[in-house]
Amino acid sequence: MLAIRIGRRRAAALATAAVLTGLAAPSLAANTATATGPAAKTTADYDDTYYKDAVGKTGDDLKASLHTIISDQTKLSYDAVWDALKTTDQDPADSGSVILLYSGLSRSKSSNGGDTGDWNREHVWAKSHGDFGTATGPGTDIHHLRPEDVGVNSVRGNKDFDDGGGAFTDSGGSLTDADSFEPRDAVKGDVARMIFYMATRYEGGEGFPDLEVNGSVDNGSNPYIGRLSVLKAWNDEDPPDAFEESRNQVIYDTYQHNRNPFVDHPEWVEAIW
Q1: How far is Cα 97 from Cα 95, in angstroms, rounded to an integer?
Q2: Exposure string (b/e) for 140-150, b if CB count within 10 Å is 16 or more?
Q3: For the chain, how are helix, strand and coil distributed in percent, rounded to 5?
Q4: Residue 162: which residues within 8 A CB-CB, separation 6 or more?
Q5: What does the alpha-carbon distance between residue 136 and residue 142 come to, in Å, rounded to a whole number?
Q6: What is the mean pLDDT of residues 213-241?
Q7: What is the pTM (predicted TM-score) of this model?
Q8: Residue 12 CA from chain centroid, whole number
Q9: Beta strands in 12-159 (DSSP E)
Q10: Up-side HSE of residue 146: CA atoms within 13 Å toward CB?
Q11: What span, in angstroms and rounded, lies between the C-alpha atoms of 273 and 250?
Q12: Stretch 136-152: mean pLDDT, rounded?
């Protein structure tokens, strides 16, 4: 029943996104090098090729298979992340701007940096959770790095994710309290799927920490992020939309050459966790 429910919600979300995009401007894919060819592939195409060793598995077996598949990637330097995000997070209505993750604002691509009013590189899996910093690997993996306003990035800090809290400047509907952060509704599922990607990709090899999702919101510098039950609910409530799917495709085609499997198969979250 979960797979059927997710499928219906996903179809509705994609249909809505298609209508809105058609009214506003060309889609993100139309503004990238992936507008034709590989971008036209369906999830079924990747099930027969990219995911062939994972399809049909559940639990730890599925997670292990996905880890092996997505660990075959091209790693970026931290400096290279700037230019990558200008493509992956390009505003569909303005090719000169990017969409900021938590606030939803559109900001000029050239306004990247560390000053007030700039956007910078937000680590959705806070880099202090596991203390990997900006090391090539988890610290530069653009599947979880997103543009965000400098001030909003500071408000989020290294807080775990949970429901509740109050608004703040340029929050865009996101909320925060003393120990947690709740992103705006439109990207709750995006955040959850980025977290589940990181917990699958980084399992303690290559000198990196073993990242895991747990039920806490006070994880500090431990290699954990919560709250698991809330992240699972967000994945269910906010299925992948056209922007998120296009972003996944651009990363695969142009930059890291690996995919976030939970964007392609959000039902795999429940199958593993």
Answers
A1: 6
A2: bbbbbbbbbbb
A3: 45, 15, 45
A4: 179, 180, 181, 182, 217, 226, 227, 230
A5: 11
A6: 97
A7: 0.86
A8: 20
A9: 90-91, 94-99, 106-108, 119-123, 145-149
A10: 29
A11: 27
A12: 97
